[in-house]
TrEMBL record:
GO terms for molecular function: heme binding; metal ion binding; peroxidase activity. Coiled coil: none annotated. The keyword Oxidoreductase applies. SUPFAM superfamilies: Heme-dependent peroxidases. GO terms for biological process: response to oxidative stress. InterPro entries: Haem_peroxidase_animal, Haem_peroxidase_sf, Haem_peroxidase_sf_animal. It comes from Anopheles sinensis (Mosquito). This is AGAP010899-PA-like protein. The lineage of its organism: Eukaryota, Metazoa, Ecdysozoa, Arthropoda, Hexapoda. Heme b binds at residue 159. Residues 1-20 form the signal peptide. PANTHER family: OXIDASE/PEROXIDASE, PEROXIDASE.
Amino acid sequence: MKCYGILIVLVVTVLKEVLNQCTNSPYRTFGGSCNNLQNPTWGSVNTPFSRLIPANYGDGKSSPPGAKDGTDLPNARLLSVEVFEEDVQNSPDFTLVNMQFGQVVAHDMALTRGGLLGQNYMQSVGLQYATTGFSNDYNSTVNPSVINSHTASAFRFFHSSIQGILKFYEESRKSLTKIDINDHTNNPTILEQTSDRYPNLLHGMTTQPMGLNDASLDPATKHFLFRFNNMFGVDLKALDIQRGRDHGLPRYNNFAYYCYKKRAST
């Protein structure tokens, strides 16, 4: 109880310091602090993720969660190999630039929806504002912080859309060459060899289909991600599974009850 009291005092102290730093400016801050004067730290950089429901840790604080019978959970890599397939299937609807845009959003803002809802649907649910006039919808009680379960789990659905091979095209959509992403991770040299490499890559990303959103991963991300000069690399699906445990993501039934007040029995 004493620890919680100290924590509350620290939080209040930090909030007071932030409030004292808030200036009477008509402009937003780059870091997000003071944009909401009633809750000046909400949505700002270097603040914790928010949670919809309590975390699932073994000791309630930080240790890895265990199975219902008290044993350790199965190895993440073993689960990846046994449960999730490896295959390359193309999306019939979307090109690779859709996956890449999703990754940019996930890594940068972590909570912004893409444009796949469609204009008609966005208008029907009030997500699209009129181009004239003004809006008075601001609500200081809405917390815009990144939700842990969203950024550490839900946003990772694009991982099955990653293609292990990137294809380069001319503007006419004539195929030029292709590269293995794991041969060039963190190494953009190939894009700097000639002046047309960036356009060729962009033409490719707007032409090449992205992977199908399913339970399978491209072998390039299943066994060889970030391999650099090694024979093997990282298993992205195993990384996703372990990330969920590290973040203490609650179990499926906890979310089912949170959303629908029901739990799956089988």
